[in-house]
Amino acid sequence: MSNITECILVFILLSVLVSLGSTRLIALVKIMALQGIMVSLTPLFLKGHESLGSGAIIFFQLMILIKGLLIPGLLFMAVKRIAIKRDIEPFIGYHASILAGLAMLIFSVFITSHLRLSLPAGHDMVLITAITTMAAGFFLMMARSKAITQVIGYLMLENGIYLIGTALTKHSHTLYVVEFGVLLDLLVGVMIMGIILHNINSAFDDVDTTLLRRLKD
Amino acid sequence: MIEFIFLLPIATGLTALVLPVNLGRILLLITALLHLQLTIMTWLGKLSPAFTNYFNSTPEGLLILTVTSFIFVCISVYSYSYMQETEMGNKPVFICCMLLFLGTMSMVTLSDHPIVLWIAIEATTLVSAPLIFIHRSKESLEATWKYVLICSVGIALALLGYFFITLAMDIGNIDAPMTFSSLNTVASQLDPLWLKVGFVFVVIGFGTKMGLAPMHTWLPDAHSQAPSPASALLSGALLNCAFLGIYKTHVLMSVAGLGEFSSNILIGFGLLSMLVGAIFIIGQPDYKRMLAYSSIKNMGIIAFGVGVGGFALYGAFLHIIHHSLLKSSLFLSAGNILLGFGTKQVQRIGGIINHLPRTFISFFAGFIGISGLPPFGMFISEVVIIIGAFQEHRYLSVTFFLLALTLVGAGIGRIFMSMSYGETTDKLEVEETTLRLLPSYALLLASVGLCIWMPDIVYTTILNSIKIIGGTIHG
């Protein structure tokens, strides 16, 4: 099964790099949908997860539904409503961002090989992908000025954390009820962020976070 | 079923969305009283958990639950009158979110599973965000955005921390249910390296929510922009809940023999928060922000007390109780002042003693209390922490501690004096009413009362919460 896992991981890595370089917000949302589906599929193909109960199957279906469909759908609606097409004037340019993404990839390979964890075979690739995804999420939040790109960065960070969870821990003590709670929090979080985004847009005529500088000491 | 404690407010909160506002206000009061009743029943041992894998009543959780429940009763009385006086974007949403907020905070205090705790804390962020945004100004939008984004990212790191702790379980080959109580029994088998890494992430994550410097940046904005009842709840109850997450992980570290590592981290963050709070209080032009920075400083004191351990740990728990009582009372008084004068600027307010004489009493008493002067409880808790720190030979830290306390006393004093006396300004917009005064008096009296006579059951509960990591009252 490791070939399929590696394919999925390559897709995730590519989606991270493309998202760092993409200028159009709609494209960014589509990439997030793909990434969400790929991230939810990863644990299915990892070794040691073959014996899936019925609870697990329902959980993974729900997860694909939420990460691949509902959350991107909410983001899509938000992008449509605030009527901006692209994130111009990023703090860090797009080409530089892609380069930074590659640097993060190398860095995470370096970390993973130096940790010398006793990971099951194939899991170190997951760890590399996870660390890169997390770092890229942080990077997006800091390097872009539009509020919606920051939400996408937050989602990417969550994806990375979820991958670390699946890569590092055995699934023996994972309770799907609990993971579903985490997922629900994420969904509601994005919904609330979407509502605030809409309000920021109507109050300031833009979703640029540089406009949010009123409160300070 | 102990789960009723958080299911009840969540259910009534959702009901309030469809009820007319007047009925909703009554529902808020009734739910608050029922919640207090359920909490008391838990103290008496009448309720037992139905899902022991996820929820359990621990002494420290019970203590924070009781404080939250008592404060909420006072705040619901205040809100009853407050909602008549103010314009709000959407009153049913306000009632709903207040109740959901109570529900999710109760869930934090009762959860025993690390990830369930995480879910509950993240949920508190989400349900309290609409409260901050309720006035729909540009400033409140900015505050809400910062609150949701900074806290969500911070708390996401705490989740990562708990994954690392799970990894520590795997490496140690532990086959126990993943609850704090069962982890404490097998703590010595956990892998120390990953436990340490996990703890650092948990402190950074929940520390963001608790308002520890330097992750505190959302706190002054959110607390100053939220309507006063919500600020009182944010400061008096929510910060404690985030603290509970850190405390439970700290206990796990101590039992695993890594207490020194986690203590030093907590002391570092605690001292830094105290200094940051103190520095920003001096010359603060906005009195609600001043109260928010005072919360940061007090959270620093609590983290410091827990880090020092021993006798100071007892002081830290006293400090949690009294800070919640006094700070929520102060925010409620500040709400009266804000309604009366219509501004948050210290400079434009003067002569509270003439305009709002009864608010002046609670405001001034709150000021005495928050500065750590007798007869209020923060005097005792701060003295206990200082004595505890001397016993542990942390002289340098005590010096910083005293410096921060002095700075805060000076900063707060100047602001209070200029607001209370000073020159009289224009006519008042809204007069004070008894319903909006009784809650602050009740909270202040509770703080004084607990100094004079602390029920034995509270006393033993505090001792039970701290004895597992060596906290005592005998020095």
Short recap of the structure:
By secondary structure, chain A is an all-alpha fold. The longest helix of chain A has 29 residues, at about 55-80. Chain A is built from seven helices and no strands.
Keywords:
A: 217 residues, 7 helices, 0% strand, B: 475 residues, 19 helices, 76% helix, globular
Strand content of chain A: under 5%
Q: What spatial form of chain B do the alpha-carbon principal axes imply?
A: globular
Determine the mean pLDDT of chain B. 91
Count of helical segments of chain B? 19
As a percent range, the share of helical residues of chain B equals: over 70%
Q: What is the total tally of β strands of chain B?
A: 0
End-to-end gap of chain A: 56 Å
Secondary-structure element pattern of chain A, one letter each:
HHHHHHH
State the end-to-end CA separation of chain B.
38 Å
Strand content of chain B: under 5%
Unreliable parts of chain B? none
Most residues in contact, chain pair and counts:
A-B, 38 and 47 residues
Judged by helices, strands and strand pairing, the structural class of chain B is mainly alpha
Unreliable stretches of chain A:
none
Query: Which percent bin holds the helix content of chain A?
Result: over 70%
Shape of chain A: globular
Please provide the count of β strands of chain A: 0
- Assembly state (oligomeric): heterodimer
3D architecture notes:
The complex is a heterodimer of chains A (217) and B (475). Chain A is mostly helical and 217 residues long. Chain A has helices at 2-21, 25-45, 54-82, 94-115, 123-143, 147-168, 176-204. In chain A, α2 (25-45) runs parallel beside α6. Chain A is globular, with a radius of gyration of 18 Å. Chain B is an all-alpha fold. Chain B has 19 helices and no strands. In chain B, α2 packs antiparallel against α3 and α13 (311-341) packs antiparallel against α15. The longest helix of chain B has 34 residues, at 138-171. At the A-B interface, α6 and α7 of A face α5, α6 and α9 of B.
